[in-house]
Amino acid sequence: MTFFKVLHRALPTNSRFADFTRCRLGCGHVEHFTDWCGDGCRHIRSYWKHVTRIMTAFNCGAYRPSRVLIFFTLKWVETIDGWKLTPINRHMRGIVWLAWKFLWQQLAAIDRGTIGRFDETLALTGVFRMHHTAVLGALYDYITVQQAKRAGARKRCARNQEEAEKFRVWPFVAIGTDKDDLPTLTYTRTYYDLLQQYGITPSPDINHPDS
Question: In degrees to the nearest 10, what's the CA dihedral of 203, 132, 191, 57?
Fold first, then answer.
């Protein structure tokens, strides 16, 4: 819901109130909605730079903290007809949505008229803890299909569902088969390192990239 409020500029900034219009993080600017993007408040700027560096590390395209990316999950792409705004990779859109959720969670907790603090590490930990839960949910559907296939069931559209789940998780978990043609799940190196960095416990059902 947070990102849909972002799209409609529905998150309340201090500039909407007469008694205290300055940034709630103490940067000294009048707090406008655009101050929460990559080139706005100095206390948030590094957060978006960090988020886009992580996104780029997944090899789903190069990203920088521009306003069109942060506010609309779009980026400029050069085509034969010139430069066009196009939606970013679907896996990376989810990360931007979660980044907004945990940014706003801290901003909303600061009482109006007071100066608070934004903890970037806390926000990123929340982002990837929730993201990891979503990845495990997608893999649960995949494993269910595999179990049905091994049991001899002919689940309708099982192959389509199986391929869909592979597509949903491929930047984060690699799905393959072992010598007995049984499915194997392995964290990608980038994703596993992120989980380790933010103290998120990997699933025991998914192999480590070095195993």
Answer: 170
Q: Which residues span the domain enclosing 42?
A: 2-118
Looking at the fold, whether 16 and 87 belong to one and the same domain comes out as: yes
What six digits make up the tokens of 94?
Answer: 């989810």
Indicate whether 61 and 114 sit together in one domain: yes
In angstroms, what is the C-alpha Rg of the chain? Answer: 20
Please write the tens of the pLDDT for every residue from 138-173: 887 777 777 676 666 555 545 555 555 566 788 899
Q: How many CB atoms lie within 10 A of CB 103?
A: 25
* Among candidate residues 79, 95, 118, the one where a domain is terminated: 118
Is position 193 within any domain? yes
- Written in H, E and C, the secondary structure of 159-171 is HHHHHHHHHHHCC
Question: 170-210 pLDDT, tens per residue?
Answer: 889 988 777 776 678 899 999 999 999 999 999 998 999 98
**Distance of alpha carbon 198 from alpha carbon 128, whole angstroms:** 8
Residue/partner pairs of 192-198 with CB below 8 Å, 24 or more apart: 194/54, 194/128, 195/128, 195/132, 198/121, 198/124, 198/125, 198/128, 198/129
Q: 9-19 pLDDT, tens per residue?
A: 667 776 666 66
Neighbours of 67 (CB within 10 A): 13
| Residues 18 and 112 placed together within one structural domain of the fold | yes
